Every structure is written in structure tokens, then in C-alpha cells.
Amino acid sequence: MNFKGLSLDQAPPISAPLRFILSAPLFIFLASVILFFSDVSALNRYSNEGIALVHTFTLGVFTMIMLGAMQQMLPVLAGVSFKKAKLVATITHATLSIGTLFMVYGFLRSTTLYMSIAAAFLSVAFFTFLVAAMLAVKEIKFFNPTVRAIRHAIYMLVIVVLLGLYLLGSHASLNIGAYQINLSEIHAVLGIFGFAGILIIGVAFQVLPMFYVAPAFKAFCVKYVVKYVLTGTLLFIILNVSFPAFSFLGKAVIALFFLAFSSVIPKKMYLRKRKVRDVTSWFWWLASITLFLGLSSWMIDEVTTTDLSPYSALFIGLGFLLSILNAMVYKIIAFLVWFHLNAKGYMTIPTMKEMIDEKLMIGQFLLHTVAIISFSMALHVEMLLKAGALFLGLSALLLFYNLLSVALVYVKTMKREPDFVMPSMR
Amino acid sequence: MSSIKEYLSTDHRACDDIFAAMEDKASSSLKETTSLCQEFCDAMEHHFQMEERVMFPEFEMKTGMTQGPTEMMRMEHTQMRSLMSQLKEAIDTDNSTKFFGLTETLMIYMQQHNMKEEQMLYNMAEQHLSAESQRVIDMMDSLIVE
After folding, report:
1. Which residues of B touch A144 (CB under 8 A)?
2. Is residue A189 classed exposed, middle or buried when 0-12, 13-18 and 19+ CB atoms within 10 A define those classes?
3. 20 to 30 Å CA-CA from A277: which of A37, A119, B67, B85?
């Protein structure tokens, strides 16, 4: 029987998740710089500039946070930890960061050499993480819907990465095949819904009822979520490859579920028993609204001639995913610092609310929201692209400052003698 | 007949409900939160003792593991007891910043603790104590807090 997850000293060292969390705002800032110097007309999903921008978010921000968080969550939720956690974190973080930078620069400059270097670094990053994650998942003894969702997300990530590396390789070798568009669509849909979406929903099943004391999710929804989304994604892949004209049916199945999820969040948040002001709950509200807008544009895009894909990317990526991850990193980082200091025998630690200034959190939330609103109107009023980029950049810097100030509490406290030395720490 | 897991998990949610009511009251008047805070601390203490005096010893006796997960859970109970006594101090000194800082910390500490118990320890307990399940629940049910 495995009890590792129950033991404090088996939890990964704090530096493992921290480096992922602190890097994410820097990549958001990088994305804001790219957006500031971009031209609206050049930003479509198949242009090199568009690919660079999208992957600054998907790799540098979303994947960065999720890989860091998963190393932290598996011990608590499933009782298993990564073997050689620090080494895995060091290799994954370094190669993911370098690989993303090379990829972004490679696409912005259309330099195939940098794309090849990016492919090499990203292969190492994902190979290291996925092998460690799959070895850990193999050890899980007790499954619940959240753990099942995490396992599903890890397997989905394997497919997303393989497709991504193939697509990156074809760009690097200037060998764009006939199936490039189909494969990139499958890559995107599996990445956003199969990996990130399912992971977030799985975690929401736990986080909302527990941390916000919100009503639990309906049993059938919790039970069948993985099967349902898996069916939708498989249907989408099969139709996309065999009958592209009907691939919207696969999309519809996926969208229907996520629409239901977007409508359930406000209900849960409204009915939550924990009513005290909590800025992170505002991010959940925003995520719910933008997810609804994003999915609506994604579906309407199928029946109109107007290209609505920039809206679905904006609302689902920057709105839904980034808002929820933003809320989660605030909760995770403050707790990690408190938890690790406490475990090391420090008793007089600032409380979690004292670590981050609430006014600055509210400021960051407002900048993030205004950035999304500005971008949503940028297709009509071009100067709003620059304004949105400015707001997003400021939001990223403020997020970085807020997170860093928590990390510094850890560094400062560690410099003094602990109040109490636990027998096991001697 | 409910299982050990169901019984103790339901009690977790009951403690969460009192916690939420306590926070809600504190946001309007910290001074008037004393009785709800006491109610919350009593409910938590009752839960801790159901585990420490009934379920954990039964589990340890059956499995022979005294230094394993139950030991870790006892340590976390001690941490939460310390946070709860600080909560009372914050009310006594009318320090609402401290109070809400502590509730935030306690909330997350409590939930990660609950996750470990509900996801792992209670499942293990069900496996090992399936035959004695009803007796263990009855003993927990009739426990008088010391």
C-alpha cells in the first residue's frame, strides 16, 4: 500500500511548483508584447504570427501552470508522487521554457532552424513529464472522478504533443502536407478540450464544493464526464479525418457539455455557502461568461461565412482558461508557502490574506477583464488591440508582482531560525 | 447503513457549513462571531476525536500501522487545533484582518487534509474495517468529547 501522498516530506519541494507558477506571468507579458506590435489582419490561426502568439499562451502559460500544478495535486488527490520530483521539475521547466521561446521566435521570424531547436527542447520537456506522470498514475490505488479526469488529461496530452511535434516538424522542414489543417484542428481541439478543459472541470469538481463550500456537482455529471468528452473528441477526430463536412457534429457534442459546465458555474458560485469576498471567485464568474461566449462563437462560426475563430480563441483561451488558472495560482501559491514553512517548524507566518494585498489582486482582475473586453472589440476598432495589449501586459506584471511577493515571504522567513524543530526534520 | 467513508465525509461537509456561517457572521460583526466560532471549534474537535479515539486505533490495530497515514493525520489535526485557537484570539482582540487571514489558511489546510482522508485513508479504512464498519460508526456516533 502506498502512503507517500499522506506524508509531508514526500510532497515535492516548493521550488518544483513555484518555478512553473512564477514563469507563467512572464509568458503572458511576452504575449502582450507580441500583441502590441502585431497587426490585427496578420493574426489568424494559420499565420506564423498567430501560431507564435497562440503557443506563447498554450505552452508558456497554460501548460506551464498545469504541469506545475499536477505535480502538486497528485500527491494530495491520489496519494502518489513523482519519482525524482525535483529533477523532473528542473528538466521539464527548463526545456519547456527554452523550447517555447525558440518556437515563438522561430515563428515570428519564420526561421526553420529555431523551430527545429524548439521541437528538440519541447520533446525533452514533454517526454520527461509524461513518463514521470504515467509512472505515478500507475501507482494510484483509489480513483475518484477528479483523479480519473487527471489521468485522462495526461493520456490526451500524449496525443496532443505527438500531433504538435509532427506539425512543428512539418513547419521546420517546410513540408506542409495535405492534412496539415485537419491535424492542426485536431491538435487544437484535443489540447483545449481534451487536455486543458477536462483537467479544469475535473479539478472544479473538487475545488468548488470544497474551497468555496458550493453545492456538489450532480453525480451523473461527475461520473460520466470523462466518457462523454472522450466520445465527443473521438467523434470529432473520426469525422474530421473521414467526413470533414460533418466534423461540426463532433464539435457540437463537445460544446454542449462545456456549455452546460459554463451555465453550472454561476449557479454553484451563487449558491455557495462561503459568502465572504473572495477575488478568486470573480475570476470563476468571468471564466463562465467568457466560456459561454467562446463556445457560442465556435459553433456560430460553423454556420456563417464570417470567421469568428479569433473570438472563440480569445474567449476560450484568455477568458475561460486564463481566468481559472489565474484564480488557482493565487490559491495554490499562498497555500504552498504557508504549508512548507509550517512543515519546517515556522509557526509565526503571515496568514494567506496578509501575503497578497487584496487591492492589488482586485487591480489585476480589473486589468485582465478590461484586456479581454478591449481585444473583443479590436477587430472593429484596431487601436483597441494595442490598448488590450497594454492592459494585458500590466495585468501580467501585477500578477507576477503579487505571486513574487508571496514567494519572497518564504525566502525571508527561511532566513530566520524556525520556532519549532520537528523530530522528523532533525 | 452508511459506510465509514460516508459517515466521516458527511461530517466534513457539516463542519464546512458551520465554517461558512462563521465567516459570514464575521463579515458583519466579528465580536458577535464568538458563539459560532465556538460551535465550529467544537464540531471540529468532535470530528478529530471520532478519528483519534475510535477510527484510527481500530485501523492501526487491524493493520499494525501506527507510524503511517494516521500519524500524519494526527499531526495535521494538531496544526488545525493551533489555527483554531488563533482564530479565537483574533476575535478576542477584534482583529478582523488576522481573522480572515486565518480562516483562509485554515480553509485550505482543512480541505487538503479532507482530500487526503476522503481519497485515501477512508478508502483504506473501508477495506480493512469492512466487517466492523457498523460497530465503528456506532462507537463514533456515541462519542462524548473529552
Report:
1. 119
2. buried
3. B85
